[in-house]
User: Fold non-specific serine/threonine protein kinase from Nyssa sinensis.
Amino acid sequence: MGNCLDSSARVDTTQISHITSASGVSKFASKTTNSSAVSSLTVPSYSGKSNPESLPTPRSEGEILSSSNVKAFSLNELKNATRNFRPDSLLGEGGFGYVFKGWIDEHTLTAIKPGYGMVIAVKKLKPEGFQGHKEWLTEVNYLGQLHHPNLVKLIGYCSDGDNRLLVYEFMPKGSLENHLWRKGPQPLSWATRIKVAIGAARGLSFLHDAEAPVIYRDFKASNILLDADFNAKLSDFGLAKAGPTGDRTHVSTQVMGTHGYAAPEYVATGRLTEKSDVYSFGVVLLELLSGRRAVDKTKVGIEQTLVDWARPYLGDKRKLFRIMDTKLQGQYPQKGACTAATLALQCLSAEPKLRPRMSGVLATLEQLQTPKNGVQELTNRSSDSS
Ligand SMILES: Nc1ncnc2c1ncn2[C@@H]1O[C@H](COP(=O)(O)OP(=O)(O)OP(=O)(O)O)[C@@H](O)[C@H]1O
Ligand SMILES: [Mg+2]
Assistant:
């Protein structure tokens, strides 16, 4: 339908700001030419399910905070819940804030003695001005309305002076990033990697297939959180965006995301579709297969960018072993690895239309869990080699 670039969200690619998270992954945000003021901030609503063709109704900050199904905490309550944000309660740090462990009573949701009641994760945003506030509100808007086993549960929020906080269910195994690259935890087995990919694919499929589709926009290993059984849940909806509706093919937006994960056509044009998420999913699938980061500045040349380095090996089953994670110690089914690599290659197609939909990605991954394609073959290989 031609060039529908929305002039109100024109991308000025000469002004790209970078934020580097604790993991060294850099986020970027192109500055739009006309940012609006905090007081007029509105984000789409997903409650109007009766007419999926209509544009989501923008809601004001007051409407979002009053209608969301989550608790408004005071700063004091969250100080009590986290032992005053004590450093030893720190779970992690991202580009936009610090995450602390805390405890609340599961019925009254009031702060409680550490070790009792329900464990929570409290994200305290760094004072980032307008962008930080906008992402905070977008997160409350989406996670206050969208509920699914593969999306992290938002319990509440806090807005107190310049302080913006978010309260989530605690995810005992932290992020996928911790397991792939931090020293300490046992390397993830093949079966667990596939389980995590399936959980994350279910979360994205749910968003894309909702009556009012949502584009997640920041799919990456650090935003995939894991429960005690390695069930994956997506977190961080600060960049999420309403998908195109009616006969629109894309939404035009300020380019934001994380280097190495964002789809090339989106970075180049600001045109966002569900297929941008599919590309990012391909990058994470590649991280799961290779055990390498999307971008690794410690490497040289082409090896710095995982997609560029791995692409030539993905479609060749005789060469695939060269990019597989050595921490798997060969303990993976060759056929299953080949299927996953082919799937990653499809997700990473330069042409968005050639990328599969997330529902198709999910179906392919689920087949890898059947004994025929996974566990059985792995058992045979293990006994072959012993
Ligand atoms: N609900 C949670 N339960 C347990 N740990 C969490 C939870 N949320 C976040 N964390 C931990 O805190 C870390 C920081 O999360 P955060 O979302 O702030 O940053 P990030 O995802 O690493 O980077 P970015 O700023 O780009 O989102 C995560 O990697 C994870 O280890
Ligand atoms: Mg995050």
Remarks:
- DSSP finds eleven helices and 17 strands in the chain.
- The two ends are 59 Å apart (CA to CA).
- Residues 1-20, 30-56, 375-386 have pLDDT under 50 and may be disordered.
- Residues 94, 222-223, 235-236 surround magnesium ion (ligand 2) (CB under 6 Å).
